[in-house]
Amino acid sequence: MLDALTLAIGLAALLLAAWTGWAAYRDQSTKDWHFIGMAVVTLLATVQLVVGIVQLARGEKAEQGTAIFVAYLLGAFAAVPAAGFMSLAERTRWGTATVAAGAVVLAVLEVRLYDIWGN
Description:
Blueprint: H1 3-25, H2 32-57, H3 66-89, H4 93-117
């Protein structure tokens, strides 16, 4: 795994969580610019998914097992988009809070991915 990419995704996810958490605190629903932020974080997670699959295809191994590594990669890839879709169903501050929670989940998944890979 690329440590810099993992760190960048974790930090971007925490920034998204802070931004959307602040919007939820101010009683705002999810806005278009929040979706742009989610798209940026999702793009980074997509790059990580591709890099992880390529590394596995090249024969590199995750320290704690390939299956769990792939499962966490897929979870990290899906965390923010799933929260974004859920926020569309709840067009209140709670939809924005859902995005913040999804971004925190992604940050935690990044820490776990780092551990699973075994750096």
